[in-house]
Write the structure tokens for this entry.
Amino acid sequence: MTQTENILISVQHNYVLSMLDGSKTVEVRRRPLRIHPGTRVWVYSKLPRGHVELVATVDRIAIGSPTDLWDSYRSRIGITFAEFGSYLSGVSIACAILLKDIKPLSPALELRTLRRTARNFHPPQFFTRFRHASTLHELLVSKLRC
């Protein structure tokens, strides 16, 4: 049996809230991620919040031009066209991560707890892949059992 891959991404807190209320089920990135459907995505709210707030599962990955991604997923991206255009300015190919099974972590994990438990923890700029049985993996997965 293969193990589920786990990644951690950083997202602005207002967009994390949109993920939690179901209005944002597609996360857009300026570069393609080499991940597969079924990957578990842990979402860290950037500072000043500084918490891992939720976990979701990758339904699929779409790679394409910003125009194609907007045309296909605009109702699920959860940002305005102006924000989308500004974020992807100068990019000819972007990535859309289609998420499913979005679940809040309760309580959310604070940055200081992450740093105390997983030494050398730094929130990712792009994304971080982490191994099974790592301290970070064990800490995050323990939140699924709560």
